[in-house]
Amino acid sequence: MSVPCVCVPREAGEATRRDLAAAGLLDNDHEITVEDGSIYIPVTDPTAAAEHVDAEVVDRDAPERDAQVTPADLLGFEPSYERLGGIAILDEDDGGRARESADALVESDLPVETVVNRASKVKGELRVRDWDVLVGEATETVHREYGHAFALDIATVYFSPRLATERHRVASQVEEGERVVDMFAGVGPFVVPMAARGAEVVGVDLNPDAVAYLRENARRNGVEDRVTAVEGDVRDVASEYEGWATRIVMNLPHSAGDFLETAVALAGEDCVLHYYDIQHEDDPFGPGLEAIRSAAEPAGYEVSVETERVVRSYAPHEVNVCLDVRLVRRE
Fold first, then answer.
1. Quick one: signal sequence residues (predicted)?
2. Which class is domain 71-138?
3. Taking the CB of residue 240, how many other CB atoms lie within 10 A of it?
């Protein structure tokens, strides 16, 4: 049967397959085939797949594949988990159910090597969790997202795969030649794609492990010449980049408001601010906008809202939101 397939060199096959799978574009009903040094990966949406991995899509005969064994097939119910590279992450309060789910995940046809269960909330200045490792040993993995690869260790850094779509939305706004500061950069999921679009990006983070991975990920993705990774509190290094930024990312939703004066100091004459916040669903954007105006207007900026976006639910009646706000200095 002829189906649309992404065609890439064989050596790029596994990375491309993972990228397509992470984006939900992999056709799991048909087999991957190889011929003359090229690999043909069936996809569900040829237009989106071609754009996602920047590769040719061709129609090709691909045999139907045997149905994959899923965790649900083994358990009789659908376990709640998320994938981060080769790690499956559970959020189970019941230890027995967590163990049962972990065993099913590794026995299924999913490419999972390690299964962990959340053992704490995100905590401390470095935003890390405790984990119960149920299967495997390695908490380090490589996560692929919208064509970029991110090495990380979930035991030492914070990373949420749930925010992939939001990160892609923001990065897609960046134009070549921009100057960007990511005030809480982590391992670089905003920094790397922005640099790949031609921006000069400064990523700052308190966590030394995150900064080490940020540097590694810049090299891994071929953008190290456009990335400056800084370990420390952004308030302590802002003076080096005062008035420099055309775009600022503030993805620290519980306390980004404490850093607004620093953001205003970093902003150039015309600067877009991506401000993340957590607020009650009755007024998700008002408090953040008021805080931004209170910091920016006395410093001589006109403030205009470009986008108000609910990113996801956070807790009962609370939402994680993003305000895309433009600051333009008054003449």
1. none
2. alpha beta
3. 11
